[in-house]
Amino acid sequence: MNRLQIIKELRRHRKLSEKRSINFAQNKAAKWLLAIVFAMIVFYLVFFAIIFALIANDSRSFTSVEFIMAMLPFTLFLDFMIRFMAQQTPAQLVKPYILLPISKYSCVDSFIFNSMFNWGNLTWMIMLIPYALMSVVFSEGILVTLGVLLSWYLFLLANSQWYAIVRTLINDSLLYWLIPIGVYLIVLIPAFIGGIESMFEFYAKLGTLISEGSFLPYLIPLALLIICVIINRKLQYVHIEKELAKTNVKTLHTVSQFSFLEKFGETGQYLKLEIKSILRNKNPRKSFIFASVIVLLLSLIISFSDIYDTTYMTNFWCIYNYVVFGGMLLVKVMCNEGNYIDCLMMRHENILKLLQAKYYFFCIILIIPFALMFPTILAGKWSIFMLISYAVFTAGFQYFILMQMAVYNKQSVPLNTKLTAKNGMENNYFQIVAELVTFFIPVIFVSVLQLFFSENVSYLIMFVVGGFFVITHKIWLRNIYQRMMRKKYVLLEGFRSSR
User: Fold this and answer.
1) What are phi and psi of 200, to 5 degrees?
2) Could you give the CA distance from residue 9 to residue 1 in angstroms, rounded to a whole number?
3) Within 13 Å of residue 427, how many CA atoms lie on the same side as its CB?
4) In 409-454, which ranges are continuous DSSP H helix?
5) Which of these, 179, 238, 305, 457, could form a disulfide with 453 (CB 3.0-4.6 Å)?
6) DSSP designation for 304
């Protein structure tokens, strides 16, 4: 088989793999929910296209081409962050083919090719094409319009490979986050020198070059794409070899007893298990540290700057800060335990006690974002009632939504192995929908409340809604447990086959 045939065959294998996945039936149902979310995304992208077109048509400082190219850095950063929800790195998909008589580079090349030429990389065209039709075609002509779309597409392809490089490196160590931070600081240099207007003017020059017929706006992203593909290809291959050839090194650890939890009985034992799972296992520990860093950075930005002081952004970032831990860890409830689910099923109501312990643990760590956002109260920006009501709402309603994933999650997530794990993709469609619901629905809910009521009344309603779910947590946790037991053999089969 030549390389092109291998690429086509592996692409067919991935499609069959998705259909034969243990999550296919539930993902098929969740796709309808995801389709609704995608429809909303399409609506917002078209809405922004109209807004940008109106701004560009009325602008005296920039032409329509210069304006949209000036927006490129911000869009690429947003695109980079969104990819963490769905895009896999090639090394996560290669393991089933390692022992076959196929070049490892051919496998990696196949998945790199598929990661570039998929529909996801065309999502931003939903915004660009309407913008071009409303603002670029009639003023600049067809050739310039096609040039803008081509330049953007090349930049997006390069961004997909840049994401794969960063994602692979941060799987090794969170310190590699310094690389993208450094890169984006370099991108922001024009803003540091002359302000945001200078940054717009700097990147708007790409639009000027497109209008003048220069090849530079295409050569720059093409060169970046080639460089990123070469680096990504080598990086994926090295990480596959490294993980397959690794040896287990035994190290001595100081065993923490957490004896103060023993007075809580069986629930206390599972609280110990939750804490030790994060302390001792590579992947849960990294997720916890990553979530903590996000909360810390957002809290610092919120507390010591005024860029998020509008009413909508205040609600969004406060709620988002509280739900980060749940959105990154609790949404995978039972996925870690899937590695030893057989032991947990041996005793009556073991799972129920485990669910209660998880709920209590994540309620307790809400103290972290509360403490980090407390300076906003001292600065007079937010009220103590707002922080408390949103914390209670998160502990009640949002954790109620996330804990439902215990019924639907049936893929074991490796505790330490990462790159070539059997199921590199930890999220299923239900997880994505649950995350979107917990991140955005509460903001919409409180925004609607504040249209009809004062802020304090809105906070009181949020507090009451959250408090209701907190008070009744034993009832709905038992309901989750009973639903799990009704489908326990399906869950067991899924957890076993995905180890």
Assistant:
1) -60, -45
2) 10
3) 19
4) 429-452
5) 457
6) H
